[in-house]
Specification:
CATH class of one domain: Mainly Beta
Helix content: 10-25%
CATH architecture of one domain: Sandwich
Low-confidence stretches: none
Strand content: 35-45%
Order of helices and strands: HEEEEEEEEEH
CATH superfamily of one domain: Macroglobulin (MG2) domain
């Protein structure tokens, strides 16, 4: 009996999918719920954030999707009951990255390298005149 259940679980189609994985705090996540190939509309979804409390996300649309924006980093679990079976979909949420210091440092560096390359090639230096006396 246990081998049959294991094989069934291994080949069963996941009915809840979450993209992107891993997600970033503040960026939208799309949760899609389906029964086979058909989307499930009007299904209530809840999420269990890292703190442990249960938060209601909303109800899936006609196409079986629901948009969610995580506000904290950590492991989240989406929970739905489909045909009397509790379905779980894990989601890892990473903290947002600050990218503007990299931009502040790389733009002047790129301009300095471009200026240096131009001087080496003779594009920025004046050419000496050749006069014959």
């Amino acid at each position: 009996m246990t081998i049959g259940v294991t094989i069934l679980c291994a080949f069963a189609v996941q009915q809840i999918s979450v993209v992107p994985f891993p997600a970033t705090v503040g960026e939208p996540v799309l949760v899609k719920v389906s029964r086979g190939d058909a989307p499930v509309a009007g299904l209530a979804l809840v999420v269990e954030p890292p703190a442990g409390e249960v938060v209601e996300c909303g109800i899936t649309r006609v196409d079986g999707t629901l948009a969610f924006v995580p506000s904290v980093a950590g492991k989240h679990v989406f929970v739905a009951t489909i045909d009397g079976v509790r379905q779980l979909a894990p989601l890892s949420v990473q903290a947002g990255r600050v990218r503007w210091p990299f931009a502040i440092a790389s733009v002047p560096l790129g301009l300095a390298l471009l200026w240096r390359w131009g001087r080496r090639r003779g594009l920025g230096a004046s050419q000496p005149s050749t006069r014959s006396t």
